[in-house]
Amino acid sequence: MSFDLHTHSTVSDGTEAPAQVVSEAARAGLTGLALTDHDSHAGWDEARVAAAEHGLVFLPGMEVTSKTAWASVHMLSYLHDPLEPGMVEINAEARGGRVERAKRICERLAEDFPITWELVLEHVSEGASIGRPHLADALVAAGVVENRGEAFERFLHKNSRYYVDQQNPHPAEVVERIRAAGGVPVIAHAMAGGRGNTLSLAELEELVEAGMLGVEVYHRDNTAQGQKLLLDLAARHGLIVTGSSDYHGAVGKPNKLGENTTSVDQLVRILEAGSGNTASGPLPH
Ligand code: AMP
Ligand code: ZN
Ligand code: FE
Ligand code: FE
User: Fold this and answer.
1) How far apart are CA 245 and CA 275, in angstroms?
2) Residue 87 belongs to some domain of the structure
3) What is the 100 CA–ligand 2 centroid distance (Å)?
């Protein structure tokens, strides 16, 4: 049994609809998956129905954007109540902030390249959480770059002159809100050195203190040394350990569904810890 607990659909910046992500998960031979779109739960219903059709376990999830003074932090949440006011508030703020930020990045890019806000919006599904990958899609459409990867390498990375920062809540606050909504907070790709600054061990321990319950250890962006640090942290604090692909669709990113997976015993721990929502399908005990 294998579970991929970090995937994205067109509800945020993935390139496949929720139902298609699920059918690809079935094709990849997975036992189950979580849909974890950025700052949105809008894909859950569609994914849950599709998972039932394919006989897969489905976990409702989300990747919540947060940051400290130095580092951008992505907090995965599983099984939270999406209507809990604290979650509704940070999700609405995050999605609104994403639109403003994307417009500003677009303005900067438009000074040098033939792209417009209208062109960007052509690549965003109705109501989706917009992000840099959509700006990348506009650059591809304008013939500036070949794919999203090239757009990030050349124009959309953090040190680019086109980059614009976004205000987001501190990860400790996000952890507290997820717990208050009955969710299970698991920090995503915490040791992804290539993405920018990462949290120190002391900062990770502060998040454990705040109620964080797990760490995504097996993710292609975590360094080998970082994985050891996370496993050690998990052992000392009894944290849940996950592994996932961070799939963004076949053309969205090279990450393949099931390239990293979470074991059934760790999945069961998530199911036991989450109380704001339900998983569905042939659940293990
Ligand atoms: P944003 O949410 O606007 O900060 O954009 C971050 C998103 O861009 C993350 O979900 C990443 O998966 C995606 N991303 C980062 N680097 C790349 C890349 N090289 N190719 C495709 N997508 C990327
Ligand atoms: Zn993404
Ligand atoms: Fe992430
Ligand atoms: Fe992600």
Assistant:
1) 25
2) no
3) 17
Number of domains in the chain: 1
Cβ of 253 closer than 6 Å to ligand 1, yes or no, is yes
Atom of ligand 1 minimally distant from the CA of 101? 3
* 247 C-alpha to ligand 4 centroid (Å): 7
pLDDT in tens, 54-104: 999 999 999 999 999 999 999 999 999 999 999 999 999 999 999 999 999
d(CA 177, CA 81): 10
CA distance 152 to 96: 22
pTM above 0.70, yes or no: yes
CATH code of the domain covering residue 120: 1.10.150.650
In a domain, 135, yes or no: yes
d(CA 219, CA 23): 22
CA distance 25 to 53: 12
103 found inside a domain? yes
CA distances, 165 to each of 52, 66, 95, 105 (Å)? 39, 12, 14, 9
